[in-house]
Amino acid sequence: MHSRLPLDFKVIMVTTLYPHSLVHVVFQSGEQTCRSTFDPSESSFRGRCYQCTETFLLCSASRLLWPASQGKEVNENSLKRLNGYLENLQKPGTCSVQPTKLTFYVRETKEKEDIQKDILPPGFRSVSFTLQTKDVLTTVMDVLKSCSLSIEHMKGLKASSESPKSQQPVAGPGNPFYRPIKWDKSYYSFTGFRDPEQELEQAKRVEPTLSLWLRNHEKEATKKQNASVPRREELKRLKKELCQKFALEDIRWQRSWGVTHRCCQLQSLSRLSQQNPEAVLNLRGHTIIFTDQSGMNASGHVMLGTMDVHHQWTKLFVSLPSYRSLRQQTEWLKERISHVLGGIQVIDIERLGPVQPIEEHCSILNTFHKRLLARRLALHPRSLQGLAMTLENDRSSPSLHEMGHFVIPATCEPSRLQTFLQSMAWEARQRIKHRNQLQAEEDEVLLHCLEGLALRNLSKEPSVRHTQMIPCCRRLLEERSPLMEGLRVEVSHFYSVMQDGDLCIPWDWKG
């Protein structure tokens, strides 16, 4: 990392390279965009980051992220909001910034009782706090303290940053009677002035209503959305051009990157196709997913790591023919497992967390298949037809997901598995039926929202459930705010205006 960064730098993206615990930072100064990858555990990390408090904060948080999909998504969303908060603090003429509530899932650093063990994996905890600071350095220190991280190395930086003009007077020989003024509550009642302590408490307790928040942020969202139109059209053109040129099934992204980042990734792939057209021909018939690592996932889709260079992509394209036999073996193992287990289907569910490579998936299927063959099971060939299951390597006991599919440990004992599947088959079918009903209901109410509110787009984050999205859409139809007309809305867990103008609102917004 650079020993000194310009004061006008701006963090664009911070990514943790799992599982190596490396951090990749993309920051911008003026017209120049820079990238750096480093290990946060290095002893020189803190010293290098004295000149870039934003990068230090984001990298420290990224290192402690919870790797599970929902927690990782919450952390990434909080980092986006935190970066926006820091940007607003640095805008010229900014006197105050709206209080912002953040939630992080962080790794537990001390041995203590985990009070959230039912919802968090061992070793992690949830941290929520509200920011109302007036400078970047204080914000950094507040976040570090809230997450129980050390701030000893930053005390010297704080002392050096306080100029004589900004320092509060203190009692001493020249001013023996000085003490800071703290007005009584009756002063604010009599004068009508706003009580800053009361405002802070209200900000912590009360979220804004949807109508109030829209009035304050609709213009900003409209401005950003209009500015992103050319980039959206370019993204659409690039995706269509690449899919047609190489007969691709689809191009997708694992994470919610902005339009600019997606355009850059497709432009990079387009340049590679011009430099090495023979290797790219092996992509025909595949689906491409831009994610954190290169390879092929359990579903047979080609993964392109966004931090990898062209040489690594080319090496993957050249080796794609060798994956065909591995895919055939994977499909054969799924068919054999389904035959032994009464027609149940083995499925792969795409997650936001670390992706399972096809090599690892095939190995798990092979091990599981051998365990089944070692013990002949008494299951009717079609008794579990229409049901589905996933194989997990980090589970200790079988379970039934709320969406109706079974989650089975790869090391599950066959006789125990048979008993569990037979006893829960009826419940699984009921949950699948309920899920399909909810999906149809959600699709219908979402369409009504798009038309009734004249929205340009309406979507939801993967962590938002059907039972949360449906009442949210119905309440939006009842509210019928004209300020939402023509906007792109994403139902999430928080309020935010994204960099491309997408409007995030919590599913449980207050009217």
TrEMBL record:
GO terms for cellular component: mitochondrion. InterPro entries: DUF4460 (IPR028031), DUF4461 (IPR027989), TCAIM (IPR027986). Signal peptide: none annotated. Coiled coil: none annotated. Residues 208-510 form the DUF4461 domain. Residues 71-149 form the DUF4460 domain. It comes from the Eukaryota. Pfam families: DUF4460, DUF4461. This is T cell activation inhibitor, mitochondrial. It comes from Hucho hucho (huchen).
